[in-house]
Design goal:
The structure holds 2 protein chains of 2 kinds. By secondary structure, chain A is mostly beta strands. Chain A is built from 4 helices and 29 strands. In chain B, strands 3-6-4-5 form a 4-stranded mixed sheet. The chains are: A mainly beta, B alpha+beta.
């Protein structure tokens, strides 16, 4: 019996590690104000290794909406060194920059990947790196190259090598998953026959806090992504939900009902030292720390309708931040601290919006009808959220200026509760 | 295991009239074959040791590779609810771990467990008071019994805000019981929010069915679907 179960587990894990490659069809609705024309030439030798790099790089750059991809699939011979480049060809194709590189298997089984980003007009190098990686790291390497290109050409931090988490539901089975930012390489962190909601990354990316209903009531857990162990963070009388990490990872804001109404509490990451932060008789929920760690944004209906408020972490009087409409919920601040995203109901539709802290100006970013759970990418440029297409839950992303949109779907399964992971140090 | 695939947003957006979620929920249909619970690193936590619920957690390797379950990974055996022990009670004896049949007798008010609410409301309507009173009396007569009051909402809006709205409904039922003399230790108001809808679909009838608080006795997996 045990052997069978372990074999089944092995099967699931195998499926999880080598998912069938779904069709990758990418078209962008809208585009950045200035799309940089770039040619990515297939890397020499990448057709002989486990994972070709340039298709991943091209998909990443294209999906960002900030690049216009110039076809360079037919360039022969494949240039490897800058000296091999015939700049006039790329100039004629309309490219401002060109990416070249190589992938060479080493005797020890690793692969040496080299790439250069060249300026076509100046015929000079903009960026260049080499990597010695295992075959399993090739996809991550393609993401890191994409980040390097993105950063050099846009001046912003690239987030292609970050991860996302979300909950996938198939019938009565709920799986908490993490995946690469492009949706590939999905792996199951937790599977349950009861719902899982509100997963949140610890700031160092090693743990997830989430709410599980496996004991017939909402209880908050913290689970390690490195060894799979997990602990109960909060299981008090009543409901325990809406975890949010402090920027230093030492504390979380949570919502408890142990004293009656749903209120925001602070709790140490080991589950100790519980302190009530909000003190109303209304609903106070969905806390989120500001990146400086000084404030907590939250949703409250203390004014008669759910609106977004801000309270100092040290306590004090909350300040109301939203005034348009009668339903503004799910606030999450941008990592740069300038704005927050939230869901606004208007005319029966729920849309992702963003509000500037300084000017209080609100911009609605989406035209879908039932958006939920928006969260910023760590570079503050993209907002990931859950929505629905034809009755099925999918993930979607919109650039924080509303110009570029993309969708991520998981076959026939329902996907919801996304959260974008933090930037991690290069491995 | 389905990989997320990127898709064009050139497709027409979902119409607001389209059904929002087709949630086919069979609470009893546990996925037995997948009860692997490879919780090698989890033995110190008392997770999911409740009958019928299966939870597996997985370590994720540093490079994103899933580690194989180690040889000593043991499936977590389902553990039953702690039996309710106690002296026989004159009015309605309760034996250890077994709930009185009257709780599920369709002829008894006690088989009714659901309190329905108006949209955006947590007011307990008068029509549900006799049922709540019957449960309050029963709890007073059976002090060893304990209930969970589970609040629910329809699917519209934020999941966490709906969780709080469901809590408010559960708490409204708790308050009625409390006024009738039931001690706080015999009842726990909790919320399932929009996560466990009894009715699926995005019709007004489904929404109304899900604006509800259920009374669940300890030892029950789910309330009998009586109204």
């Amino acid at each position: 019996m045990l052997a069978t179960l372990v074999a089944l587990a092995g099967l699931m894990l195998a499926l999880g590690t080598t998912p069938a490659r779904a069709q990758l069809k990418i078209e962008i609705t809208g585009a950045g104000a200035n799309q940089s024309p770039i040619a990515v030439v297939p890397f020499a030798g990448e057709d002989r290794i486990a994972q070709a790099l340039t298709p991943v790089i091209i998909a990443n750059l294209q999906r960002s909406g900030l690049f216009r991809m110039i076809d360079a699939q037919d360039v022969r011979p494949i240039p490897v060194q800058p000296a091999d480049l015939r700049y006039a060809d790329f100039s004629a194709r309309g490219a401002d920059s060109v990416v070249i590189g190589s992938a060479s298997p080493l005797p020890d089984g690793r692969v040496e990947v080299r790439f250069r980003l060249m300026d076509v007009a100046k015929q000079s190098q903009l960026a260049g790196f080499s990597y010695m990686v295992s075959p399993a790291q090739l996809r991550l390497t393609a993401h890191r190259i994409s980040d390097a290109i993105y950063e050099r050409l846009t001046g912003d931090v690239g987030v292609f090598s970050t991860k996302i988490t979300y909950v996938e539901r198939q019938g009565n089975r709920f799986e908490l998953k993490i995946a690469d930012a492009d949706g590939a390489n999905a792996q199951t962190v937790l599977a349950s026959s009861e719902p899982i909601i509100s997963p949140k990354w610890s700031p160092d990316g090693t743990r997830l806090a989430y709410v599980s209903f496996e004991r017939k009531k909402p209880i908050i857990y913290v689970q390690s992504l490195t060894n799979g162990s997990r602990t109960v963070l909060a299981n008090f009388r009543g409901s325990n939900s809406a975890p949010a990490w402090s920027p230093d990872g030492n504390r979380l804001a949570v919502v408890l009902t142990r004293d009656g109404p749903s209120q925001v509490y602070l709790i140490d990451a080991d589950g100790s030292n519980v302190q009530r932060l909000t003190k109303s008789s209304a609903i106070d929920t969905e806390p989120a720390f500001t990146p400086d760690g000084r404030f907590i944004l939250f949703t409250s209906d203390r004014g008669g309708s759910p609106q977004i408020y801000r309270v100092p972490v040290s306590g004090g009087d909350p300040e109301r931040l939203t005034f348009e409409g009668t339903y503004n919920v799910s606030p999450r601040p941008s990592p740069d601290g300038r704005s927050f995203t939230f869901v606004q109901r208007s005319g029966g539709r729920f849309n992702v919006a963003v509000q500037d802290f300084a000017t209080r100006q609100v911009q609605v970013l989406t035209d879908t009808a039932v958006d939920e759970s928006p969260s910023f990418a760590p570079n503050s440029r993209i907002i990931l959220y859950a929505t629905e297409v034809r009755g099925r839950g999918i993930l979607a992303a919109v650039s924080s200026d509303g110009r570029v949109r993309q969708r991520l779907s998981a076959g026939s399964n329902d996907v919801r509760e996304p959260a974008w992971g933090p930037l991690l140090k290069a491995q | 295991m389905t990989e997320l695939s990127m898709q064009s947003t050139a497709e027409p957006p979902a119409r607001p009239a389209a059904p929002r979620r087709s949630r086919v929920l069979h609470r009893a249909a546990w996925i037995g074959a997948l009860c692997v619970a490879a919780l090698a690193g989890c033995s110190s936590t008392p997770d999911a040791e409740q009958s019928g619920v299966q939870v597996e957690s997985r370590p994720i390797g540093e490079q994103g590779a899933v580690k194989k379950p180690v040889a000593d990974a043991l499936p977590k055996a389902p553990v039953g609810q702690p039996p309710i022990s106690g002296a026989p009670i004159a009015t309605d004896p309760v034996s250890a771990g077994k709930l009185p049949a009257v709780l599920t007798d369709p002829k008894s008010l006690l088989s009714r467990r659901s309190v329905y609410f108006e949209y955006d409301s947590n007011v307990v309507r008068d029509e549900f008071r006799p049922m709540i009173q019957a449960h309050a009396r029963f709890l007073l007569d059976n002090p060893k019994l304990r209930i969970t009051i589970q609040g629910n909402t329809d699917e519209r809006g934020s999941r966490e805000y709906n969780l709080a709205l469901g809590q408010r409904r559960a708490d409204a039922v708790r308050q009625v019981m409390s006024v009738l003399g039931v001690g706080e230790r015999q009842m726990e108001p909790v919320s399932l929010g929009e996560e466990r809808p009894r009715a699926t679909g995005s019709t007004e009838a489904a929404f109304a069915e899900n604006r509800r608080a259920d009374i669940l006795y300890d030892g029950e997996d789910k309330p009998p679907v009586g109204k």
